[in-house]
Design goal:
- With 57 residues, the protein is mainly α.
- The protein has one domain.
- Helix 1 crosses helix 3.
- The protein starts with a helix and ends in a 9-residue tail after the last helix.
Length: 57
């Protein structure tokens, strides 16, 4: 569910998802790839002790 919200409201994640779909990946595969990207990002933030900072619009 967080992945679907990120695809809908986060421009960076949305662009990544659309790129994957545009290159021919099925939507479910693209959602799974974005999900993995978010998990890797969360792990990196926790490891470095940083907080999420939204990119300026």
């Amino acid at each position: 569910m967080p992945t679907l919200c990120a695809i809908r409201y986060n421009r960076t994640v949305q662009a990544k998802f659309e790129d994957l779909v545009r290159t021919g990946k099925p939507r479910k595969v693209a959602v799974t790839a974005v999900m993995r990207k978010l998990v890797v990002l969360a792990k990196a933030l926790i490891k470095d002790g940083r907080k999420w900072a939204q990119e300026p619009a």
